[in-house]
Amino acid sequence: MGLLEGKVVLVTGAAGGIGKECALIAAREGAKVVVNDLGGSVKGGDEGNASAAQATVDEIKAAGGEAVANSDSVALKSGAENMIAQALDTFGGLHSIISPAGILRDGMFHKMPDEDWKAVIDVHLHGSYNITR
Fold it and tell me: Which of 17, 20, 67, 80 is the most exposed place for a label (fewest CB within 10 A)?
């Protein structure tokens, strides 16, 4: 029996990097996992693709765990609300949130377009606020 047996955990940014590892560990410890990832690339513009989150879900299920994919944005209050609702509707509860979601706009700060800066702030700052609120 794992440390998270019977618990429901939401992990943001869970298609790669730290988020993915957090989702895999939570599942390995017995949690039912809501795997959130917007599916965007470093350059942006391809957000809303659930296949990135689904790949992590498939990995969890292949190892015998339970998980569901979510591609809402943490940068939007409605996105955070949808993630919580999905956890409640799918698994009947929510016990923990792990929120490492983040984006990268690969460029020099002094050359970064304003819209890239805004996107980074929206995910890193507003996303943390939205999902924990």
Answer: 17
